[in-house]
């Protein structure tokens, strides 16, 4: 009886053949799941806007802000935190394919910037920074679950060796020895799915009266506390991290957790006041 799981999933679903000199173009699970996060997230926000009587026409603008800020933030964050020499030598690589390398901490920074700009453009509509951000955390958690599952389909961000019965041997990953490892991507994906339902429950309880910053705080504390812990089970993404007691993901998670705790405390003290 096997005491591990043999994981040999192909990262590609199918390939679009070359047409008129362009291509071929592989269609990958990661890209499909990434796009699905945006599409389903948009439907969630449409439902929330309807329930709280907001203007549905704003959904398209909000989606555009989110797509651009998340992708740009995640790409710039990857190079800034993990490959700064590439960012400064060839900044165009941020926007050029293939898009190998997305940093969740960079996505958070990009998202905050995009939401701040969106809220400024909607002054007087009641869509303050925290009104929008609190509700979007539901879609962020769901998107995080999809992205981490995409990492699993890519056999990347693998865990450290493990003798647990659910350990995976990642056949498609030739960077590390073919031995059973923690499926760290799956741990994070499942955690994000659970968080999605926790955040839905919070919003469903309060709806328009949701304490300002509460859902943002819960999101930050949940995601980055677990991220800090899961990093102990994961192989380092870059060689330089081996020289530190904590890797880059853990170092960047600490301020995120502290900020989340601050938002939760403030939301309980002044539930109806805007935090800014």
UniProtKB/TrEMBL annotation:
TM regions (residue ranges): 29-49, 61-82, 94-117, 184-202, 214-233, 245-265
UniProt EC number: 2.5.1.145
Enzyme class, UniProt record, top EC level: transferase
One cellular component term from this protein's GO annotations in UniProt: plasma membrane
One Gene Ontology term from the biological process aspect of the record: lipoprotein biosynthetic process
GO molecular function: phosphatidylglycerol-prolipoprotein diacylglyceryl transferase activity
Primary location class: membrane
InterPro entries named among the record's database cross-references: Lgt
Keyword Metal-binding on entry: no
Residues engaged in binding a 1,2-diacyl-sn-glycero-3-phospho-(1'-sn-glycerol): 148
Subcellular localization, as worded in the UniProt entry: Cell inner membrane
Family: Belongs to the Lgt family.
HAMAP family for the chain: Lgt
Physiological role: Catalyzes the transfer of the diacylglyceryl group from phosphatidylglycerol to the sulfhydryl group of the N-terminal cysteine of a prolipoprotein, the first step in the formation of mature lipoproteins.
Protein known as: Phosphatidylglycerol--prolipoprotein diacylglyceryl transferase
Organism encoding this protein: Dyadobacter fermentans (strain ATCC 700827 / DSM 18053 / CIP 107007 / KCTC 52180 / NS114)
Lineage, uppermost ranks: Bacteria, Pseudomonadati, Bacteroidota, Cytophagia, Cytophagales
Gene: lgt
């Amino acid at each position: 009886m096997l005491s591990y799981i043999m994981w040999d999933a192909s990262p590609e679903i199918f390939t679009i053949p070359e047409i008129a000199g362009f291509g071929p173009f592989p269609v990958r699970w990661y890209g499909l799941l990434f796009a699905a996060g945006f599409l389903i997230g948009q439907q969630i926000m449409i439902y929330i806007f309807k329930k709280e009587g907001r203007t549905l026409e704003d959904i398209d603008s909000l989606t555009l802000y989110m797509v651009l800020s998340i992708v740009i933030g995640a790409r710039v964050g990857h190079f800034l935190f993990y490959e700064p020499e590439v960012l400064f030598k060839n900044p165009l690589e941020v926007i050029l394919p293939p898009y190998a390398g997305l940093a969740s901490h960079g996505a958070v920074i990009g998202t905050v910037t995009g939401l701040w700009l969106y809220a400024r453009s909607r002054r007087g509509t009641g869509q303050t920074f925290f009104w929008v951000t609190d509700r979007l955390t539901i879609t962020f958690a769901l998107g995080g679950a999809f992205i981490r599952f995409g990492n699993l389909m890519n056999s990347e961000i693998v865990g450290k060796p493990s003798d647990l019965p659910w350990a995976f041997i990642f056949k498609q990953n030739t960077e590390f020895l073919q031995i059973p490892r923690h499926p760290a991507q799956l741990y994070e994906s499942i955690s994000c799915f659970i968080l999605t339902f926790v955040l839905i429950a919070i919003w469903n309880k309060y709806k328009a009266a949701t304490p300002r910053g509460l859902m943002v705080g819960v999101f930050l504390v949940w995601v980055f506390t677990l991220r800090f812990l899961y990093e102990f089970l994961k192989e380092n993404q870059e060689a330089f991290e081996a020289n530190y007691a904590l890797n880059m993901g853990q170092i960047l998670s600490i301020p995120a957790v502290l900020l989340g705790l601050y938002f939760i405390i403030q939301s309980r003290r002044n539930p109806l006041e805007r935090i800014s």
